[in-house]
Amino acid sequence: MGNKLASLIKARKVFEDFRKNLTTDQNKAGAIQAFEFCFELTWKTMQKILQDRGVRSGSPKDVFRAAAADGLIQNPKLWFTFVDKRNETVDTHKEEVRDDVLTIFDTFSHELDLFIQTAEAQK
User: Fold this and answer.
1) Domain 2-121 maps to which CATH number in 1.10.1040.10, 1.10.275.10, 1.20.120.330, 2.130.10.10?
2) Do the beta carbons of residue 61 and residue 80 sit within 8 Å?
3) For a disulfide at 68, which of 5, 54, 76, 96, Cβ 3.0-4.6 Å?
4) pLDDT tens digits for 34-60?
């Protein structure tokens, strides 16, 4: 499990560094890119963990449903919100969209930490 989480833990650190310093447009853009990368890596890591447990899943929402059923995450609907925000990032050149995406970063950070802790505890 540690190997599966190593890349995600590194990506989380980059995301956290940006998330805690949203003072410039450049940092906000970096934070959004770090979120995109971290989000993609998170659901794919969940998918790999589930595959190792014999659970097959496809889309991110399928993965989040299965992860909740397997006890890796608590609230799949919250993760569906992250999917929606990730999909909005293609329009972050629009300031209102960018600012809306930034609003979920604290929640994403918390949920990501919970997932990593749970996955590590289930090794």
Assistant:
1) 1.20.120.330
2) yes
3) 76
4) 999 999 999 999 999 999 999 999 999
